[in-house]
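It would be a great kindness if you could assist me with a short task in structural biology. Thank you for your consideration; the sequence and its tokens are set out here.
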Amino acid sequence: MKPIRYIVLIVTTRCNLSCCYCYSGEVLSHRDMTDEVIERSLEIAARGEVPLHLQITGGEPTLVPHLVERILKRARNTIRRPYTIGLQTNGTNLSVDLVEKLRHFNVQVGISLDGPPTVHEKLRGKIALTLKGIKILEYFRIPFRVTTVVTSQNVGSMDRLLYMLSNFREIRGIGLDILVRKGRALSDNLIAPPLPEKLKEGIRSFVRTCKAINKMRSTPILLREQERLKEGLSKGRSKFFCHALQGESIAVMPDGEVFPCGQTAGDRRFFVGNVWNLDESKLDILKQFTPSEEGCKNCAIQNFCPGDCPSRTFYNEELSNLACIMYQAIWEAMEVTSS
């Protein structure tokens, strides 16, 4: 098997929130990952010598802390290649005991947070519990990053999210994921990807706000998409959005079924086997959905833009140019703020 560089372990389909755009839609039966699937997944993770990232997610993974701990312990005992490990959580169920374990195993923590309190409450709910979880991370001095799903409902309030986050010492960065039209995002008429002009305006304000806030912080809040542009500019690299495009990524469901990435997990159109019988010839299935470069002509960032998520291109169809608008707006804001 070709060495896998990125493995997503979907340890449970259970969740304690009911996000209005949940990509999983309405989950009729909840499943937790079995010990056999964990063992087999980590056997795959142990193969090869290239660096690996192992991402624990769900559902909400903190609802099964015993499985999270089992993975952390087994990974340390099993994987000999260089690797990092992360946990993506809504933060509502973080406990002192679990956070201490995350620190012990040097886990990279990601918090899903979609806006200032009133906005997040509307989109996801339980904002008070999320902030309580962040405060536990703060107490134990555990760095964390935030992932924000950008929608029509929050695109105008992302700068206010930054002001809220600036109160936390351990915040290290924020990533912006444009809404994908699947699951509940297809059935809820009130939730949609942002309009192009609103996205451009929101991103410009976001970058300006981030720069102003960072002037007052000893540790800056890094915008993931801005850092991607900087890295591409410094290396002059060609477009590379994710390992799934190279057939070097898998997402494992609780029952062992495998898909090329977390975004496509559960979609039978992207099924590539299970952890015991992978169809390696299909691991790069997302290549066919690489965004067209026709619109890149004469773009100022065409030579170092990372491009867009291929699965988002597939699901969003006619809205697939929103990532271009986002990166162009970030670049324009960078140019203005640096002059």
